[in-house]
Design goal:
Elements: H1 3-19, E1 22-28, H2 33-46, E2 48-51, H3 55-62, E3 78-83, H4 88-99, E4 103-110, E5 113-115, H5 117-125, H6 129-169
Antiparallel strand pairs: 1-3, 1-4, 2-3, 4-5
Length: 170
């Protein structure tokens, strides 16, 4: 990798750090190509990115961003999982770590808050943005459907009573 490629990578990483909501630092000790590809696909499906970068270049990219305190975690064979959804990258990383012993979570950050392994696991336990949106829509729709049911119920009861009288008379 020549100097211009390294500069491009640093710029790309700096842009990622400026646009992301969460950074999860992982250590992969001997993942196979198939396992790594599987992890990348799961991250992509969740709306997250998974990137292996040289620690020195990642440290240069972290400088001047709100994630600069996590530079101490970049030791050894590390990789960065990032996402704009505060929960997506953490959720995929924690789920993948449960099924693969060669993959471990080192720590990370959400905004200005540095998170340890337990913090990342707690973050992964939260519902995603899509789940929260679905719950909000359900809560908003529930009163409207109850009102519609309440308005329609007296008419339906009268129809049932008239139907019962007609059946009895016949």
């Amino acid at each position: 990798m020549d100097r211009s490629q390294k500069a491009d990578l640093v710029d790309e990483l700096k842009n990622v750090f400026n646009e992301t909501s969460v950074v999860v630092i992982t250590r992969n000790n001997g993942l196979s190509v198939a396992q790594s590809t599987d992890l990348r696909l799961k991250m992509r499906d969740a709306g997250a990115q998974y990137k292996v970068a040289k620690n020195r270049l990642a440290l240069i990219a972290l400088d001047g961003t709100r994630y600069s305190p996590i530079g101490d975690l970049l030791k050894g064979p590390t990789a960065l999982a990032t996402s704009t959804d505060p929960v997506a990258a953490a959720k995929v990383a924690v789920d993948f770590a449960k099924t693969n012993d060669k993959f471990e979570i080192v720590g990370g950050a959400m905004g200005d808050t540095v998170l340890d392994v337990d913090g990342i696991k707690a973050l992964a336990a939260l519902p995603s943005l899509d789940e929260l949106r679905a719950k909000l829509v359900g809560l908003i729709q529930a009163p409207a459907s109850k009102i519609a049911r309440t308005v329609n119920e007296p008419g339906a009861q009268l129809a049932r009573v008239f139907g019962a009288y007609a059946a009895k008379a016949a």
